[in-house]
Amino acid sequence: MKNFLLPLLALFALAFAARGAAYSTETTSALPASMPPAAAAPDTLFDEDPYFILMGEADSAIVHERWAEAVLRLSDVLAVRPDSPSNALILYNMGICQQRLGNDSLALDAFDRSLELAPNMLVTQLARGRQLLAMRRDFEAFDAFTDAIAIDSLSTEARFYHGMMALFGGKSDIAEQDFLVLKNVTPYSSDTATALGTLYSLTGREREAVPYLRQLIEEDPQPETFASLAGCYLALGELSDASAVLADGLGRYPDDPELYYYRAWLRRDQYLLDEARTDAARAIRLGASPLRVNALFAK
Predict the structure, then answer these.
(1) pLDDT tens digit sequence for 85-141
(2) pTM of the model
(3) Cβ proximity of 175 and 163 under 8 Å
(4) Cβ–Cβ under 8 Å, residues 226 and 249
(5) Three-class SS of residue 35?
(6) 248, 246, 186, 250: which is closest to 212 by C-alpha?
(7) CA distances, 110 to each of 105, 107, 125, 170, 190 (Å)
(8) Whole-angstrom Cα distance, residue 76 to residue 240?
(9) Is 96 helix (H, G, I), strand (E, B) or coil?
(10) Left if phi > 0, otherwise alpha if psi is -120 to 50, otherwise beta: which for 189?
(11) Contact between residue 208 and residue 225 where contact means Cβ atoms under 8 Å apart
């Protein structure tokens, strides 16, 4: 596999972390979809019905990020109306709250119970997949995203995770299919750039990867992206472009081991062997794999 696999793995981890932060805010409006609008309800309905009182308390707790309190109130809601068709959404919200509390098993249990009530509820299936991925239960997570695609074949989130997991699992043909959906549905999104930049880099299509990696640098310049783009330029033999990318990356991240690894590669190819070995030693000192770094000089 390509020498720049490690920064590409980091790109996937970065994308996952960003998505996790984004989806943690999904609970800021926890009222069930079936709740009647206030304008159509009697004036005393919300003041007298325990269901709506508890829902209001749960919603307030969620808005103020009091996750433990929200879980208690949502549990009370379920107890008041155990057969309500809204309980699938209540359980979904409970799972999100448990995630925020770091209760992985309880979060997964809530998502499972939600799907028992509403098997085709896409948002819950996606949350379940993310939870399994966070718990490092990768095979089950892959199956969850497969199920999400069965619910909605155009779900870009499901396609992103499914495709990235397939790609790093050696199933590039499946990744190609998933990322084609991303390319068609959200051609300019960061997820699409991450997916296609990674796919093309790992399958020997560095030229095609370059514009997507450049997009990521423009949107969110992270060291992993600079390293991946430099790796593409080095694989293409375009040393001046690789040099410019590394100069920019090291100017922002002067202690990143991957960037020194790629500068060692660059300087090796420029026949500046003393400088290359200096960069290699620094890469190792900052945490890069000695075996991987020393392989640069094995030729």
Answers:
(1) 889 999 999 999 999 999 999 999 999 999 999 999 999 999 999 999 999 999 999
(2) 0.82
(3) yes
(4) yes
(5) coil
(6) 186
(7) 9, 5, 11, 32, 30
(8) 64
(9) helix
(10) beta
(11) no
